[in-house]
Design brief:
Elements lengths: L1 H27 L10 H9 L2 H23 L2 H21 L7 H20 L12 H20 L10 H37 L1 H23 L2 H22 L9 H20 L4 H10 L1
Helix pairs in contact: 1-3, 1-4, 4-5, 4-9, 5-10, 6-7, 7-8, 7-9
Length: 293
Amino acid sequence: MNLDLGILLALLCAFVANLGFFFKYRGANEVRKVQVLHPLRSTAALYSSKWFTLGMLTATASWGLHVGALALAPMSVVQVALAGGVVLIAVMAERLFGFDVGRRQWLGLMLTAAGLVLLGLTLPSMHGAHSHFSVAAMISFEAGLFGLGGLLIMGPRMGGPAEHHGMMLGAAAGILFGVSDTAIKALTGITGAHGLLGLVLSPWLAVAVLASIFAFFASARGLQDGDAVPVIAVTGTAANIAGVAGGILVFGDPMAGSPAGVVLEALAFVLVIVAAALMPAPLRAASAARAAA
């Protein structure tokens, strides 16, 4: 029952998180550009938009659902459920926000659905929340993702193509969200074992907060520099991949025990990744909607 409830919370989180992203996209493009060197001024400008404020309130609700899911289910299972959010981006973009979703996006939807079903069938039975972790693995994993996210944030300053700035910042935000998610998963286990005092004294609380702050600014600037659908999609995909990897590498979430199961599980991940690559295609529709706004 805990596992089923965790998956349900993750699915609800995916929908609510995407809704918040679309609200934040509208709000971020109503105000001046985010400047990392002026964080307080940029934050005040962002929150001066009612749409961005609504998006952050919605994102806070999705964060609560995500923490609940992580407390009840293994991290890799939660992230696979969240991967369905990439499909929801296309559906919500077309039905709720007026984007024209093409044939490639619906193909991505079917591939994602197939990958999630296949992955669900090949995952071994898991009991408990799988919150125990190796400190060495945790440090190595979090430091590596922080470094990768930092390189993507600096990409525009290092000569990256201007048309890719939004996508690079979106990917950086997703990776840093993955850093925060991994730390939060560790904190759920620490809190269960040592109570609130263990939570407050844990260094992973500072890691989660710091990663979230950097992800906040990277995401907001990415939404300003890029089109809504591809930036939101790459942010969610990067966070999902980081989360699944963290579940397996840090928390020891099991993979299939047989060679055939491993092959099918790998195929499932490939299907989800290919689908994520197909989903952000309606760039012209996104640009048109942005121009109209």
